[in-house]
Amino acid sequence: MEQDRRAQWLRGVLDLCVLGTLAAGESYGYQLAQALDAAGLGPIQGGTLYPVLLRLQRAGLIAARWRGGESGPARKYYRLTAAGETTLRQAATDWSGFAGRVGAILSTGGTAVRTAAGGAQ
Amino acid sequence: MTKTLVVAEMAVREMARRRVVLIILLLLPLAFYLSRRGDQLGQSIRFVCLGLGWALSTAALFAGSAARTIEPRLRLSGYSARHLIAGRLAALWAVGVLLSAPYFLLVRLDQHDVRYGAIAAIMALTVLVSASFGLALSVVLPRELEGTLVLLAVVGLQMMLDPDDTSARVLPFWFSRELATYAVDHTGGGYLDRGLLHGVLAVAVLTALVAVAFRVRQGRRPHLRFEPLR
Amino acid sequence: MSRDAGGAPGAHGYRRGPMRTDGWLAALAAELHRHGLGSDLTGHVVAEAAAHLRDSGESPLAAFGPPDTYAAAVAASVGGPAPAPRGRVVGPVRLAARGITKRYRRRTVLADVDLTVRAGEVAAIIGANGSGKSTLLRICAGLARPDRGTVRIDGRLGYCPQDGGVSDFLTADEHFVLIGAGRGLDRSAARRAGLGDAAALDWAPKPGVQARHLSGGTRQKLNLALARLGTPDVLLLDEPYQGFDRGSYLDFWHQVWRWRDGGTAIVVVTHLLNQLDRVDTVLDLTRAEAAA
């Protein structure tokens, strides 16, 4: 997949993906990055992820607390807030609708191109 | 007093940093001296004193011009005109004495049967006149080039004009030739008196010119008042 | 986002190649501070980055990029510097300019301009090129005369022009002593004050270096430190940040806020508008009206 376009798409949905991943439970930054990578989005750099987490926290969609210390160093854990859950549900609906429409255009457009090239109408 | 000393100290430091200029200034009078040393020993004394005057006036001109950019700040920082003028003059006198000392020694050792006291007087007055003259030029004229040209003209005229001509007395270094005549040719006291009088007068007039021109250039600022508000 | 593995330092002054984690984290803390983040938040951001680096085992430049880029991204996410602590005491009027009018030949550069600044306030003068910003400041500093109007100042005055104000053949130290003596400071006090202000602008003057050998931006830092020497009550700054890199520019504004909190009345001529929401008065000369 072309790198620039992938990065553009990711910029648009990364915050929602973070919300989606946190729905499964509390998590910290590096763990989130690994989960997103495993889910197929590719490696997410810390420089990209943490500003997103800060923005979500400032918007009140996630909340954070420091945990750990006994079995390892302290880490900042994030979890969804009620507002975050609402936003996630809404976003999921919006996204499937949006992605469906875009998909239709792309596949129809592809068919139209093939038809036109074939000379038939 | 401290303020004047600090101004003087910094002026000396500034001048000391311009190595090439200092070397040229140091060797210029030597060139003048050697140009006449062969056949006219007495003339060489007159020439070396003129060379000293030219070199020191140039140093004063450049020292004054270099200080222009920082002058508004100095004024704002609490220096008055007399601190700045007195400090710069003191620095120039110090440099002048350092520049003249080797030449006095040169004359002392190289020339015989001349009145050394008078020669010392010439050099002392030259230092004083040059400092004020160069500084005055830097204050009155906008850039160093104009000042240097004026200096060239003055020194040139000094060498060419007949000293007995009354118009020659207008030139700032006229005393130099009068006193040199007294020292070398062992003339009567008249030359000594005239020379000393002219020298002292030149110092007074040029220093007053510096003070007046400085105040004029700084300008009055009647619109600005420092006073407690409300 | 693509980023080359060794980091791309550009003009930041950080070393190329792998950066030790401690150094990177320290630099990050410094950059966050420059952006005005509170110390709490700075601590959290740095600690989280440290934890991430521990867990992932990556090098800082690979995971986050150069410290100043990451700090800028964080600052943008957080929404700008912390608001000024309210309840700051504003003092008596220190600068009162009334009815300043100035004409150059046929053109009226300043028309009946008023400006009042109190101790502990910052006023910004903005406007297009040629709108008379520098002229107004020079008139307030007493370096130019208006055709009409008066300027009254309560206390000592400091002025920093866009360039100049510095003696080519003297070192920074000598400048501090010279200006300090005018302000009544002895040598060591003058040096300490000057070096302190220089350090706040991220500059450590090397002894024995004459001003003519300094770069343009560094000369301006000297210019600014000299204007501030002796803590004047009124400080007039005419875009003094010429030649500053981005970090120094942020440092400059930090200093302005700190001087303001210390009770100085400050006037800054600027046409960079991103700090305007933190100043107390804005005088827009293009529209020839004062907005408070």
Automatic annotation (TrEMBL), chain A:
Span of domain Transcription regulator PadR N-terminal: 18-89
Q: Return the SUPFAM superfamilies for the record.
A: Winged helix' DNA-binding domain
Spell out the Pfam families in the cross-references: PadR (PF03551)
Top-level taxon: Bacteria
Q: Which InterPro entries match?
A: Metal_resp_DNA-bind_regulator (IPR052509), Tscrpt_reg_PadR_N (IPR005149), WH-like_DNA-bd_sf (IPR036388), WH_DNA-bd_sf (IPR036390)
Q: Write down the PANTHER family for this protein, in alphabetical order.
A: PADR-FAMILY TRANSCRIPTIONAL REGULATOR, TRANSCRIPTIONAL REGULATOR RV3488
From the Swiss-Prot or TrEMBL record, give the protein name. Answer: Transcriptional regulator
Provide the species name: Actinocatenispora comari
Automatic annotation (TrEMBL), chain B:
* Tagged with keyword Transmembrane: yes
Q: Where are the transmembrane segments?
A: 20-35, 47-65, 85-106, 118-141, 196-216
Sorted UniProt keywords: Membrane, Transmembrane, Transmembrane helix
Q: Which domain of life is it from?
A: Bacteria
| Protein name stated in the entry | Uncharacterized protein
Species = Actinocatenispora comari
The taxonomic lineage of its organism, from the top, reads: Bacteria, Bacillati, Actinomycetota, Actinomycetes, Micromonosporales
Automatic annotation (TrEMBL), chain C:
Query: What's in the keyword line of the UniProt record?
Result: ATP-binding, Nucleotide-binding
Record carries keyword Nucleotide-binding: yes
Q: Give a yes or no for keyword rRNA processing in this entry.
A: no
Q: What name does the UniProt record give this protein? A: ABC transporter domain-containing protein
* Naturally occurring in which organism (per UniProt): Actinocatenispora comari
ABC transporter domain: which residues?
A: 95-292
The record's InterPro entries line, in alphabetical order, gives: AAA+_ATPase, ABC_transporter-like_ATP-bd, P-loop_NTPase
Check the record and name the SMART domains matching this protein: AAA (SM00382)
